[in-house]
Queue: 4 jobs
Job 1
Amino acid sequence: MLVHIPSPLRSYTKNQSEIQVDGDSVQGLLANMDKSYPGIRFRMIDEQDGIREHIKLYVDRKQIETLNMKLNGTETIHIICALSGG
Amino acid sequence: MAKKTILFVGTRKGLFLLTSDGKRESWTLSDAQFLGNLIYHVQPDPRDKDKVVIGAKAGHLGPTVYHSNDRGATWTESTSPPAFPQAAEGETNAKAVNTVFWISPGHASEPNKWYAGTSPPGLFVSNDNGTTWEPVKGFNENPRYPELAQFDGTPGGQMVHSVIINPADKNHMYLGVSAGGVFESKDQGKTWDPLNKGCAADFMPEPDPEIGHDPHCVVMHPQKPERLYQQNHCGIYRMDRPDNKWIRIGDNMPKEIGDIGFPIVVHPNDPNTAWVFPMDGTEVWPRTSPDGKPAVYVTKDGGESWKRQDKGLPSKHAYFTVKRQAMTGDNANPMGLYFGTSQGEVWASIDEGNSWKCLASYLPEIYCLRIMEYED
């Protein structure tokens, strides 16, 4: 699957803005991302599997709130950093 | 060999290094590292002059820890940053680390050990120089820990800070929780007891609570570890162990200044000498220099008396805020003293506070200053 990486996380992906990752669920996809790019998951997802306050995850342009969603391998994932103010 | 000094400046938008020689008269400001990242604490290793550990996060991203083995030239991220255990299904009070607020080196006899204090309140330990971290269960799962939750709501989040290891006893530790109080462990963190007797908690409904106090900064004298000082939300205190009652030495400050502030710094060789940076703690708590006239206050008699030190600082219309990690000293003779402001200025005195000069301006809001001294 194609995963779009926002700039704050590209230090983990060797500056790639798009990566290919497999997974049969969002949870599995994030685990595989962390295997390829160690440390990236914890910056997005806390230790209780909560999506961090200023991170938004989209599957095929629909925002998801939990990591349980199943994937069939054809989806496109967007990771968005959402922060306002100085 | 020439003596070198590095002043690490942790800010809301990155890390900066001010470097100087042993004279400390001329300083060079580095480019920003971690630009845009919040650097809550920078801690050089007194056991190894090359090592530094920092607690950081980015605006969008979760908290992490970086460590350097070359005095801040290059950094490596922790592979397992401080994190609470994953809660069991259905557990309602699951905690997630929001900030790694405090970093402390372990005892000299344990050269790879470090401690981290977090928000929400948590104590974590690393036994491999900051590469991996694990919870200190004795604190995080203490039966009294749930009581701390009632004191949450402070502007910067409730956090663990001032993690102190007694240089004479590696098992003897202190820490502060804002808000929550000072706690002591005599078994390297397995068990903890409150240490707040004598300390005011004016904001609490109960007149003399056992916990719930708001220590802003707690320090131990490195050569006389029984001597503790505390800058609290409700005054300046001293304690000489084995006594277990804080004495309010801030009552000896000028009444028009008061004894509210964030940092407190001790002289490395004189347990009776300490500095504070008073702030306005009246009405809605501006947390700025009283009357817009910034000054450091020093005691040289353990808090019996205080003297104003403001030579070189602005004489009026200057509303400095100096946070708890943003004031520090070096080990030179005479001692150098440094503070950083929320307006991004770094001020230094190389004559123990008698006169001050500005080393850097226009930096981001300063969270932390720490000194590394070495010979090259």
Note: The longest helix of chain A spans residues 26-36.
Job 2
Amino acid sequence: MEWIVPFILTVITASTPLLLAASGELITEKSGVLNLGVEGMMLVGAIAGFAVTASSGSASLGILAAVAAGTLMSLIFAFLTLTLMANQVATGLALTIFGVGFSALVGSGFVGFAIDPLPALSIPGISAIPIIGPILFGQDFLVYLSIAAVIGIAWFLSKSRAGLILKAVGDSHHSAHAIGYSVIKIRYLATMFGGAMAGLGGAYLSLSYTPMWAENMTAGRGWIALALVVFATWRPGRLVAGAYMFGLISVMQLHAQGAGIHVPSQFMSMLPYLATVIVLVIISSDRAKIRLNAPACIGQAFRAAQ
Amino acid sequence: MGVATVTSTTGEAGANTVKGAGGPAQLEVRGVTKAFPGCLANDDISFRIEPGEIHALLGENGAGKSTLVKIIYGVLQADEGELIWEGKPVTIASPHDAREMGIGLVFQHFSLFETMTVLENIALAMNDVRDMDALRKQVLEVEKTYGLPLDPDRHVYTLSVGERQRIEIVRCLLQNPKLLILDEPTSVLTPQEVEKLFETLRRLADEGCAILYISHKLHEVKALCQKATVLRGGKVVGGCDPREETAKSMAEMMIGQKLTAPDRGKSREFGDVRLAVSNLSLESDEQFGTDLKGINLEVRGGEIMGVAGVAGNGQNELFRALAGETEQQAAPDSIKIDGKSVAHFGPRRRRRLGATFVPEERNGHGAVPDMSLSENGFLTAFRRMALSARGLIREVPTKSFADNIIKTFDVRTTGSGAEAGSLSGGNLQKFIVGREILQDPGVLVISQPTWGVDAGAASAIHQALLDLAAKGTAVLVISQDLDEIYAICDSVVVMAEGKMSKPRPMADVSIEEIGLLMGGLHDLEGNATPANNTQVEGGRVGQA
């Protein structure tokens, strides 16, 4: 049974970047904006975090840089889609392609660098409790942040007035505009939050998960994060469940290979997407559920009518 | 403060005379001008509303009423001119400002959020952040005081149009408005409910609230308003005291020409039954829809039958069942067109038998907003008008079909290439009605033919329906507008809670009787089921 603690620890580390990026995208989508550039924003966040940490030696500065980089990327997206009203799907895809190339360019000088991984925030005594100690109290800052962020978002969406306004903008931008809310401003903020969280997710990969830089190191996690939001039917609670389930699948895939079980690795990598498709089919069969949670205006450009 | 005390002491003598005589107007609009690219929506508009006055704003679609309302509510800014609020010039920069000052607006196109609850919708339009439980109490209180029943926890998408409008009204009343603007508020209410709304409005006016009332229903304006301002083409063309005018004279002022009442022709001979529904029961496919219960009706050739009823009592379900939009579980012969059983047919096969349909919702149901008029014409008429050959669109006949509709029904547009969504509501409605009528149908089912349509267009549509019936078509008109039913129908049935009353000739039935039937009081002949409308609503809320 000694394997169980390290196993759970790897599940947590595999799930955290997904959870960070997906919770940001959840807020973005709730405002009615579909940003498909998550993968690109994560990559740019990852290299920004790594480069600043490697050059300054400060992981805190690195995390801040990742947040700033992710936010900047999302600002490009917001400017193109919200101000210039470009198509959101095309712009999001372009943002990902741009992010892949740009991070590789900046990161070419950092390949092979090594940094110390993010320190675990251990609490003396409690962290030493067997099993629970290392799992609950031996994680690094970003893991706690990812959980706190989801709880915060759940509260924000269900209890706060600002959350209600955010949902209103995503539900009917014309109504929100008529009542007097600034649709564009709210969408800018939501998109920037999504960028910041994607940047954090990227930073977690390059600073903690594998403390190094490798080209295209997100390896599709941005896309999984996007799928997760739909998988969770835009609900924060299900987002946690989904992220950890996908984390579990990806870890099991490694373990299965290690144990010599001959399941093609491609099959295992395919599983999260397959699960998403199946869940999409299931939830789509209940129209009422979709209607209640899906932002009705998602992906639509808003132009204030005369 | 000093000024206020002076006014209240001196005001005592004239407290019961019409307020504001000599005092500042609640709102004065001075020389407001607003131009959009290619059109001058408001041209030097001036008028004033006194406190406690119910003031009508009349005008056809496109006369500039909506633009003016948006300027007063802070959604738009005027290019020129000023607004004087209680004697002081003001800038209303946003709806938030407007609400802060005490201006409430009941929108024509509801400004609601479908996936949210009634309470959340109300909270979103409040300026001050309130505790949800306190707000719930206030909402229930206002609902009780003004007789507007609504369950605060229901989701808006499950509500009927009439119920949705109630949300908007409650939303405004909660803010203790000094000026309440209502844009076409009565189109979805029963006569009794309209009377109730008027009581509410008169009471508000007595409390000193000024009311700006926009409606096409001129006899209502006559019953309710003390003053009217008439707009045409963005300009004020006159003012009047509606109590001293007739509905006809006001309509003529609005459209700037003589209005002819629909010509019903000689008493018509009815032919064979062309549309027959027998014992049609259908579960609604909407979560909170109304199930149809044992519907029977027969419409003969040449007959126009009206289906009256409050929104949400099964009319939508009936329309969808007749048009073939719902998957049919009913027996094939429960619906017959010209004697053929069609209940298991989809819309296209029913159209092939000569039936055409005009749904209530223009954009997205009756027409595709992003497509051109000629494409929209093609969509329902391609078979009957032979607009397609070998799977391809025949461009020339398609365009000339659309041009023909535009010409025959006087659709004001830039041409058949214009996007359907760019037309005003009335013009698009004329186009859609024209599209179905020109296909020379044997049966026409039309839902809310003149909802939100101005007087000129409405009378054109009414005349077209009468002409169509005179040619032997069976016409079924589903409408909440009793004036409309009285103006054109030969017989009437009333829907309440998914059930339908027996058909009655129009001449034999009074408006009060119809009102009672609308409230669910079926079978006046005998076994009456006493349930007024409030209880009906309550029952449905309970189930949800």
Note: The first helix of chain B runs from residue 2 to 10.
Job 3
Amino acid sequence: MKVENQTELFLVSSSPHTHIGSSVERIMLDVLIALAPAFAASLYFFGVDALRLTATCVATCLLAEWLCRKAMGRTNTISDLSAIVTGVLLAFNLPPSLPTWMAAAGSLFAITICKQIFGGIGYNVFNPALAARAFMLISFTGAMTVWSNSGWIASVGASTVDATTVATPLGVVKEALKAGAAMPNFTGAAVMQLFTGKINGCIGETSALALLLGAAYLLWRKVITWHIPGAYIGTVFIYASILHLVAPEASVPPQIHLLSGGLILGACFMATDMVTSPVTRKGMLIFGVGCGIITMLIRTVKSGAYPEGVSFAILLMNAITPLINRGCRNKVFGTKS
Amino acid sequence: MQTIKSPYNFKGGIHPAYHKELASGSAIQGLPLPATLSVPMSQHLGAPAKPCVKAGDEVKKGTLIGAQAGFISAPVHAPVAGKVNAIAEVLTASGRPCQAVVIERVESDETDFMQPMTNWQSRSKDELLARISEAGIVGMGGAGFPTKIKLSPPMDKPIDTLILNGAECEPYLTSDHRMMVEHAREIRLGAEIARSILGAKTLRIAIEDNKPDAIAAVEKAFEGVAGDVALTVLRTSYPHGSEKQQIYAVTGREVPRGGLPMDTGCVVENVSTAFAISEAVVKGIPLIQRVITVTGDAVQNPANLMAPFGTSYQSLIDACGGFRGGRPAKVISGGPMMGFAVSSLATPTGKTASGVLLLSPGRVSQYTSQACISCGRCVDACPMRLIPSELSQFVEADDIEGAEGIALMDCIECGSCAFVCPAHRPLVQHMRRGKACIMAQRAAAKAKRD
């Protein structure tokens, strides 16, 4: 056979020869764009602290990613933007008064222990931001549960709660119920405060409005599908509604459950983390329902220490994602029914 | 004949940019023939034909030059008159070396065709099948499976439906489209012959809804065909031209895993194959040429050329005014989803090559593969409902058995998964490697048994 001059040859590769144009970077950029309204809301409600924490987490995550890849002798992956997403998401899950060094320590943990040790993007089992938050809750329990006062407690008239113990909305309710007091009165104004975000909480989780705007963008861009957030939020709503119907005095109304405790942030931005959630639609539904049930269990067990539970619910479901993937493969075309 | 909308939508699939407008309006035309043609002996699935001429022999247009060499094989005929120069080795579009009969062309009107069957209705099934076999007709949609075998299913597999595949779901390609617009009557004739051989009660013509002029032409030409005949309009979605997806779209039947279309009582024939059947039976002309779309952003004047087999890609491109905007980055035999990138313009055309696609560097994106981020887009895109992400990871880890266990062999290599993958993973390449390993294992096991 005649061997031709190299320069005469055309590029040969396996089909397909065309691509839709998507990329991991573009997905991460879309997530960052979707997080922008919530970031704006955090600046509005928490001011310079929101900026301080977000900048610290993003910078530390980028640095940690770069160092890890260099130390492991792997290609640099800073440009895929995933470290920035982790930084922003972690910051959004931190209380405004958290010391800077703790935020940096958490970020270092997120990238090093939760992501790069597994092999970097695509290989981690747990959502790095959530796993780091769990680490910080254990390591810096006090600092991680100090909230600023947004005046929400006064507006729901939870007078039995010690005015100096500034807690998140679900924390207020849990303490009130534990103390044997009546369910706070959730006025329309209080619910609206929850919706817009003028409440105590982590810097990025308070404004349901801003987060839903971002989620709508992700759905429109087809970065996420409705399955996980829909199943998650739907399960919480149904679970909470049933409890509220059975015992209205002892149960938080469903709309309060939906708008507080980082549920919207978790359901739309953390549970939908592609790497740590199932790949089939059926698997996604199971994942979302599981997150919803675990969240509600954590929230409603009276003796429980945590008033919220979104982070732990998602982490637990992350752990069984490989199992869900295995059990939820689609029926192959042509399988005899 | 009635026109119906496809009642079933297969799950998955993609919507790539089609770019059909480049060539869809261009009528089929001839081309200045090259001085020599290298006619490959392997233009079909199965054993390559065996050259039955030698250097120095004179051949006429239609002379048998390659004899069928096995049950799954097909003969090859001289596409032009001339003198055999040599029996040489060439690379086919798929990159495999194969023998070719090199013919030095002479201007001559002499032909060496078969006897026309003026009254085909009075001929027996076996006579018609023998003619189709003798004419070297193979599936012209891409796979190149000998048509005679397809049209003679075993007794225990009765065929009730013949589907004419006019979906042409590959982007850019318009050869079937033009055939339907310009040769719908011959396609009808071929379809009637195939239908009578099969004894199929039902005839369906499947065309995607992005070809309204082809739909109109086929509606007109098929007017008055007796029995259960309909044109099924498919929504435009890749891969609707794939046999399994098309049978489902038209009949709602799923070809069982590991099975063949005949297991659902269906036979699918490409419209160009139907044309070839009519030419062979009614006019006695063996399969020696086909319409090939020369298109892409890197060719001057995209066109649909009726080209004799063995024409080099260089001659096709010259006939279309050469390159546009410099040298293309890729030259593809077939469409961008399943076609073969070829290394050289010396590549000869063959029975299954429906297009030559020239893409400029701007259209050929080169990516570095990244780790799978489990986004699940490939899962949504897979028309076979596989988990390409997982399959690819199994193959990457050399766990071929693991991949086989999650239905690797069901992959049809349509490329939908790789098309949507944001991590630019070479998913189809992984599937092909895995499947090749399994086939090699099976062959080795069989050899050991024998």
Note: Chain A has two domains: 25-144, 152-326.
Job 4
Amino acid sequence: MNPNSNDPLVMIDNERHLFKVSRSNFTDPEVFAKERERIFSTCWLYLGHESELKKPGDFVTRVVGGRSIVFNKDRQGEMRALFNSCPHRGAQVCRERKGNAKAFQCFYHGWVFGQDGALRSQPGEDSYAQGFKDDPDSNMRQVPRLESYRGLYFICYDPQAVTLEEYLGNAKEYLDLVCDQAVDGMEVIGGTQEYAMNANWKLLVENSIDGYHAVSTHATYLDYLKSMEGGLTDVGLKGVGKDLGNGHGVIEYTAPWGRPAGQWISLWGEEGKNEIDALNARNEKLYGKEKADRIAYKNRNLLIFPNLIINDIMSLTIRTFFPQSPSLLHVNAWAAGPREESEAARQFRLSNFLEFLGPGGFATPDDVEALEQCQLGYRNSQEARWNDISKGMKLDEPSMDDEAQMRAFWREWDRRLTGSEQAQGVGA
Amino acid sequence: MSVETLKAVDAAPITRPEVEDFLYLEAALLDEWRLPEWLDLFTDDAIYDIPPTDIAADASSANNLFYIADDRYRLGERVKRLMKRTAHAEYPHSKTRHQISNVRILSQEAGLVEVTCNFTTYRTKDDFSNFFFGRLLHTLDISGDDIKIKAKRVVLDTNGLRNQGRISIIL
């Protein structure tokens, strides 16, 4: 229960440049139930990448927004998203995590479904009324909306939702900057990092686009890079934070680490330099110098509301996460890279990823610890009630270590949960 | 992996009790957070790998995203990091218990011994306890005076890390 139920969930004071978020938002089961209804049932949610389903018949099963989903490619090459429940009694039809299948069979009573979820046959067909098989209710249900943007597939459980492109809005510019790093398409690299945090999911939203915590939380990672010969350039951490509308936010900035997308570090050697130079030259030819430089030298931590993070930093990660309860979240994270990338470049990409990211990296475990400590701290939320998200609110152009991109998330979250339209202040 | 017969070896063969003693020593050093000493058990070209659980256990870290794929340099840095107070994920240090069983020597050739064993590692941090379990594959170099680890691969039997959250300790 919200201990102070008359309080707003998000309190914005544009005059005093204060932005406060109630800590009950991270613990209250009622808030959690509303999130399921008003966010995870109505927003576009990331399902998977086109490269995960290469051949007709390929499928993966995934839990998205609390629903069990089969994401598959049918014989004609069309991508599909099915609710993984048998229309007969509801058992999960597909019990494998991934594979290739011409048809799906529920083992309980033996009903068989096509790649489009349509009922093909069921034992004892004679006992059913004529036309039973033609009734749409006899099929596995399709997710109401499945749309893609540049190889990223999203689903939405609300048939009335705006199109994915409209939903992504200004975030498309940033997705393009990521996808344009490949001429032959991006691919998700084999292997999923599946982990968890004893923390509310919104803490990971904030953390994933937080340019303020690096120096303190990630001291050991920075020590590591500094100690490594050729591990860093002399470029500083500098850039902007932006509210992209619709709840999406981004920080875009320069940083000292190597970027397989175009920022060479001497650790990668002469051969690595030649490769990066060629990459940047190719991009300049394709996109012009300004955009090529932005691709090469700018890092992007991008939030697609509510729960997709694409971090184009020292490596490229796609990360999505779902609450299991107010204080537990599950994360799925993948590495992605251009299909045409050389073996050496792929290794730098993966090596960079593992140094920083993921549950065995030199940085992410400390983020997990921070978020879990926040969640533990919220035991005091009846007395110590508010989180502060005000940093940079008084500025016209908030920087990457300010919190405008988080305020973007919270405004949209508040709008969807409570219907309140709180005015946007200076600098968002 | 199938049960393989012992092959003839050039070096004096090592026995299972000797291997067990070594693995128990390794486990004790980890449980006692004597990580620099633990690191000394490794050869200069050693690797330490933990593949994710949705790909083959023998997959390569060159073209797959692992949880951990350390060469000797990064393993050393991992140890340095874990010994710092600013390794927040492990400060205060969690309590761990590394259990080893079902030790088998798979092959011995040219001073290199392939060993597999089952493991369970328990961990307590703050008020939470959880455990990791699966199989360890050690490649031991017995050509010198001391046994050294040339490769260690941790094959988890869980689906991902839903109960463990992270791998901030060494398994």
Note: Chain A has a mean pLDDT of 94.
